[in-house]
Write a structure and sequence with these properties.
The protein is α+β, with helices and mostly antiparallel strands. A hairpin with a 3-residue loop joins strand 1 and strand 2. The strands form two sheets. A three-stranded antiparallel sheet has the order 1-2-6. It is built from two helices and six strands, in the order E-E-H-E-E-E-E-H. Helix content is about 20%, strand content about 35%.
Length: about 90
């Protein structure tokens, strides 16, 4: 009951994750954010390197709060559209 869960918040300019998500992903430096448009499922997967389908995620040297931001307006827009949010 006291265990924290991974949380993602969809904002206007991208996604924000709590530090528990970084812990679950073993503080991966890069991630792939995957969205299944048919089912509405969202997944975040650790990626070994930065590439066309991955984005920077956790960097200890700039980590100053309990959340991590992934700036991607297009991804946030796609998630809102799949979820049916206005």
């Amino acid at each position: 009951m006291g265990e924290k869960q991974s949380i993602v918040t969809i904002g206007r300019n991208g996604l924000s994750f709590n530090v528990r998500t970084a812990d679950v992903l073993h503080r991966a430096a890069f991630v792939r954010v995957l969205l299944n448009a048919e089912t509405g499922q969202l997944a975040v997967q650790a990626a070994p390197t930065l590439g066309p389908q991955s984005t920077p995620f956790f960097r200890l040297e700039v980590f100053k709060s309990n959340h991590i931001k992934v700036n991607s307006r297009s991804m946030a827009r796609q998630i809102r559209a799949v979820a049916g949010w206005g």
